[in-house]
Structures are given as structure tokens and as C-alpha cells.
Amino acid sequence: MTRKRRRLMFVGLGMLALFAAAALVLSAFEENLLFFHTPSDVAGGAVQAERAFRLGGLVESGSVERQEGTTKISFAITDGGASIPVTYDGILPDLFREEQGVVVVGRLDGGGLFHADEVLAKHDENYMPKEVADRLKEQGYWQGDGAGAQSGAEGGSGSYGQ
Fold it and tell me: Is the pTM of this model over 0.70?
């Protein structure tokens, strides 16, 4: 084998190793991404079943059901256009209540039921995730003061309801 062939083979193996490493990093990155979806997105089929994502909206009035003697709870999240049933087994945040903005993290099963691993309630009366506030505005639920919602880091203003 000539010196030139050895050099070409070394560069080729180096490039192959670089592509393999990049593929592994991108694959791991994609598995750890948590996209945000609204109930209308989920009802429209924009979400793959069994893939983890964040679902945000308002806790539907009259949908909260607790199982006696357990920490299991079921409720529905709505954005005014669609409603997605959610189950959760754990301790809820103190701010969790009906008609309150929440973001849940979990997976959708094949039957359309969302199994939450984590429930996040808004931390004060002015906070609403921007994606949820935008969807509520589109559905006509948002009654802000004109300033609209801001991200959690910036704070925000406005309210929701019918």
C-alpha cells in the first residue's frame, strides 16, 4: 500500500467516525426534545402516540375527578377548540384548580388519553405560557388588557374566561 493510499484510508475512516458521532448526537437530541402542543393540535392528529410532549391549556370546568384514598386524578385540558382527557398519579401543585392554566408533560396513548408524568400550574395570576395564551386568543377565550401574555421569564398580563 502506497503512502498516498494509507493517507486516503485514514481520512476516510476519520470522516466515517465523524458522521457516526454526529448521527448519535442528533439521535439522542431528538429523543430528549419535548415539543409543546395544544389540545387542538392533539385532536387534529399532529402528535404521535407514545411520544413525550408538553400539553398546555385550561383545566376544563367540572372535569376534575379524584379517586378516594389515592393520589390518582383525572381531568381534561381545553383550549376552547378541543378537550383532551388527562390522568395523573401524584401530588398536584397548590395552584391547580379548574379553569386554571396548566402545562402537563407526558405521553398520549392510542386511545387519546394523555398520561401525565408532571403537572405544572401557573406560578402567579399573570403568568400564562405564550403558546397557551396565543391559542386562547385564537379561540376567543382570552380577555387581556391589550398587552397580551408574555413568557414566564418576562411576566405578563391578561386574563382568560368566557
Answer: no
